[in-house]
Here is the input.
Amino acid sequence: MWWIVILIILAVLFIAFCALSVGMAHYAAYGKRSTLKESWDWQMNLCDDIHYLSMENDFEHYTIPSYDGYIIHCSLLTVAKAAQKDIKTDRYVILCHGYTDARYGMLKYLPVFSGLDFNVVLYDERGHGENKKAPCSFGIREAKDLAEVIKDTRNRYGKDIKLGIMGESLGGGTVMTALKYKPEVDFCIEDCGFADIVNVLEKGVKDTFKGIPSGIVGPASIAAKICYGESFKAARPIDSLYDNEIPFLVMHGGGDDFITPDNGKRVYDADKGYKEICIIDGAEHASSVIKDRKKYIEVAQKFIKKVLQEA
Here is the structure.
């Protein structure tokens, strides 16, 4: 009878292991999302130089269908509102927010683009903001959504507009992954994005869940594939850069202990085309533009001017 006891113990351990893997996959795919109001308030508390904006009056809202019919909520902030100038411009930039945030979470980057007379397109990434609940695929489906936003922006505002993309954290992974689709954009800026999500998840498990080995990310990746259609191991923005020729700027915080700076260095080294990199000393995750606002704006604007052949 002893072998029956052993089989029962092994079965219980296997079920517990599977449950833990599924639980980790769900935890990663469905983090608590911020509302638009929470995202807005957070930005207003961070940045004194965007207090002139009004959430109720300054944005033009619209929705677009993505490649699979999923509805994406977008907002346009024109130069007239963003830069407080009575002008029209053919310059647009699409901003992609980070994990659990919403589209207003990218407003802290507004001075970079308003200073160069860009209209700003903000949108909620899949499963975030006003969009329908959906699991995060860490750039895989999100990049396909961005490709649709890019197409819509050109169809909506003009085929010949100047158009750039920028993303932070998950948004950084999204803009990098989208480069595999050879989008019709003039530049790409990524801030604190990941080269691959596995290294981030493994570090997160080690730092957050004491007693759980980081190796659980492997089985959780399989669970994510089974439950949500995409594995964590497939989320590798770096793979989209080996043949990229779109001008590429990497920004990263030197003190980022969530998505560590080596991710920025890896994607910079992988990129094929014209590229620049800037590590902001001491900046924590997604805070480089706050830590050294003057330097950040100068570096980003100089890069944009160069690729648009204005400097």
Q: What stands out?
A: DSSP finds eleven helices and eight strands in the chain.
